[in-house]
Amino acid sequence: MDHRSQLLKGVLDMCLLAIIEEEPSYGYEMADKLATRGLQLTSEGSIYPTLSRMQRNSLIEGFFVEADGSGPPRKYYRIAPEGRKRLKEWKEEWSGLRDGVDQVLKGAIT
Known about the structure:
alpha+beta, Arc Repressor Mutant, subunit A, three-stranded antiparallel β-sheet, 4 helices, 3 strands, 13% strand, globular
């Protein structure tokens, strides 16, 4: 696995929660939103196991929406109260981590 994939794997939960917090979404739609914002997944298939785990951990809730006559219902996900709380914590942690990594990469000591 390449470095980019490893880095993304470490933050995929946080990124998916942020996408779902904006509005309920389904898997392919989330992959598209991540790609539009600059996060290319190695495969869309990596999203579904993550979503299942997040649902088991009560961070998100799944629900089905009937397609408008073309195809089976789609499974959408919305953020759960525990997910909203965890996302807030992750955002704070990420900010500190990002700043620290930036300082190390720049070679600056503040």
